[in-house]
Amino acid sequence: MHETKILSEWIAGLRLEDIPETVKDHARRFILDNFGCQIAGATVPWSRTYYDVITKTRSGTGATVAYYGDTLSPDDAAFLNATFNHANETDDTHLKSPTHPGQIAVPTAMATGEYGDANGEKLLLAVIAAYEVMIRLSWTCSPHLIYRGHHPPVGVGPFGGAAAGSVIMGFDAEHTLNAMGIAGSHSAGLIEYTKTGGSVKRMHAGIPAQAGVRATMFANAGITGPASIIEGEKGFCKVFAVDYDLSRLTGGLGDTWHMLDNGLKPYSCCHLIHAALDALDEARGKQVFTPEDVVEINVATNSVPILSHIGSIIEPEDILGAQFSLPFSMAMRLYGASNGMPGGNGFWDYLKVDLGDETLRAAARKVKVVVAENQSNWARVDEGAGIEVKLRNGDVVTADVQFSKGLPENPFSDAEVNEKFHYLTDGLLPAGRTEQIIDAVANVESVAHVSDLAALLVAPDSSGRQAAAE
């Protein structure tokens, strides 16, 4: 009992000098990766729509909108930056839970940090706190949140945003507890988009980020919240997950850092699809074959709910549907004809793909997704996929990928983190800016004002900026 209180006391007492260097290293790479997602994500059409709505109907100052440069109230800036962050399914994932901590941790820490004139050390600490809170809460309820139809980031995200804000504002344990209590009343998120599509999922980071900042501001003004918002009889775990394990929430707090289990995404689609994409690459490495050689591809995943999450849509009607369609994403990779981010499933690939291309649709119809008969290799949500490629000549090529590229068991190198950042931002920022951001994040503790870092994420005014957004 009293898990919310224990968590709040931990947040209030967190100090950067007590955090292992490896955790700080991971936080820096996640900050950089999410900055890249924000900059690129700001240019997609639906982000421009959200941007137009917010800037036309909202006002205020205190925090900067990435890429565009407007200054808005911190909750509205956090909403837009988080929406940009998650705009095209490229942001990091704690797949074991599963949740997307960076899309909320980084924008909320930046918005409250700029509003509160924090420095880089405080920003780094706030990001680490937010990651740990979000991941621990999602893991406490895993896999029951997503299996019951909740999108975990929208449910646990307000708590992460409140944790970041509490660190930035220097809250004591009581104020932090109230911020958490208020945050819980903002929890939401449904995943019906995996069945019938729709673009609302694009703001599933913006909703909790805005909520986390607001919870911080309300707690600072003296508003109070229930002290048992997580573990209580009518609290988050019992209402949202029904089945849960509270020992995961506070067990090893301060010693075990779940951020180290977080993974980066090389492909701009649901992370549960990534292992199958890597398995296709592995199969093509074993035997050369063309898309026309393929008769059928069988993909084994690890559970009926996961099959439902990524195997329901065969011929998507919109880009989000494609990003949650394992069959169509496999077809894109089959015709991408190369490995890595540009291999058919990168950020820009999903934006330009012709969803009506009958060649791709026919290839998608060849992909069958099933639950593995022997699930020993896929015992957890985050553990991989196996594929079987049947060829016209009668050959059958198999491949089994337990941990996709970017997960902690198969991590990006520092060079690959920087390569992805370049891939996302080159051409959108002035010459030299990308390297300037990389250097600033690598030395984030030396940043005197978060506003200086926020300014680096803004593109210069030009007709090219509007054209990119369109």
What does this structure look like?
The protein is of the alpha+beta class and 470 residues long. The chain folds into 2 domains: 3-261, 2-methylcitrate dehydratase PrpD; 271-401, 60s Ribosomal Protein L30, Chain: A. It has 23 helices and 6 strands. The protein has helices at residues 3-13, 21-41, 45-57, 74-85, 102-115, 120-140, 144-147, 152-169, 173-184, 193-196, 206-220, 236-241, 247-250, 274-286, 304-311, 319-323, 326-336, 347-352, 358-365, 414-425, 433-442, 450-456, 463-469; strands at residues 63-64, 71-72, 294-301, 367-371, 385-391, 396-401. The strands form 2 sheets. A 4-stranded mixed sheet has the order 4-3-5-6. A two-stranded antiparallel sheet has the order 1-2. Helix 3 packs antiparallel against helix 4 (74-85) and helix 8 (152-169) runs antiparallel to helix 9 (173-184). The longest helix is centred in the N-terminal third of the chain and has 21 residues, at 21-41.
CATH topology of the largest domain: 2-methylcitrate dehydratase PrpD
Strand neighbour order, sheet with most strands:
4-3-5-6
- How many strand units? 6
Strand content: 5-15%
CATH superfamily of the largest domain, please?
Answer: 2-methylcitrate dehydratase PrpD
User: What's the overall average pLDDT, rounded?
Assistant: 92
Counting structural domains, the number is 2
Secondary structure: helix percent? 40-55%
Identify the CATH class of the largest domain: Mainly Alpha
CA gyration radius, whole angstroms: 21 Å
| Helix/strand class | alpha+beta
Uncertain segments: 376-381, 462-470
What oligomeric arrangement do these chains adopt? single chain
The H-and-E topology, N to C, reads as: HHHEEHHHHHHHHHHHEHHHHHEEEHHHH
Report how far the terminal alpha carbons are from each other.
51 Å
